[in-house]
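Summary for the steering committee. One of the milestones for this cycle was to obtain a three-dimensional model of the protein with adenosine-5'-diphosphate bound, which we needed before selecting residues for the alanine scan. The sequence and ligand used are listed below.
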Amino acid sequence: MTKLDIIQRTAEFVQEKLKNAEAGHDWWHIQRVWKNTKLILETEEADALVCELTALLHDIADSKFHDGDEHIGPRIAGEFLLDNGLDSDRIAHVQQIIYNMSYKASLGQVDFHSKELEIVQDADRLDAIGAIGIARAFHYGGFKNREIYNPDIPPQQQLSKEVYKNATTPTMNHFYEKLLLLRDKMNTNKAKQIAEHRHRFMESFLQQFYGEWNGEM
Ligand code: ADP
Ligand code: NI
């Protein structure tokens, strides 16, 4: 099978698998991350096949929706790639990246690094900021039936981790807890450039939001 064939097959597999996925993690998210990955690859030296396959497979089974099992995603990805004849080094690499991009890894317990991981991580993070990031955040908040904003509930920094885990925080808090921090976490120059633009858009959204909240403008 050629590289193009395996990428095409993987795209079809993921599209089918995510048919009923929650809209923040559906096929369209995957397609955007895949596009971002290809854009970043234009200016980076890396194994493009590993990057593209990982972009396609990175949310195949989010642990959030599988009782916190961080191994199920890498396992499904690995089985699929083995069935489709990918070499074992690349399979292991794809699995490592998916595992290390997971929730646990986002808490800082990362023990694997590669250029390919940096690229796909950037591509995924870019989809969490800007106009699409805003749409995804409010979609996710709606899915969880969260408040849009509550001036009496401060962002996470001011609450203990344990309390926060059980609190229902409004979606606006997510900007301060994650979205506004992502610009400075980008690995590649291309993603840094794009993130700068999207970050500014979120800042202007927030300004407008508070203005309207206060009955101005
Ligand atoms: P991904 O799997 O794409 O890396 P996540 O699973 O962390 O991202 O989140 C998916 C989407 O839902 C992102 O756009 C993220 O910002 C949003 N999201 C996650 N947690 C929250 C939250 N507590 N409030 C609002 N949006 C959230
Ligand atoms: Ni993702």
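Key point for the committee: The longest helix spans residues 189-213.
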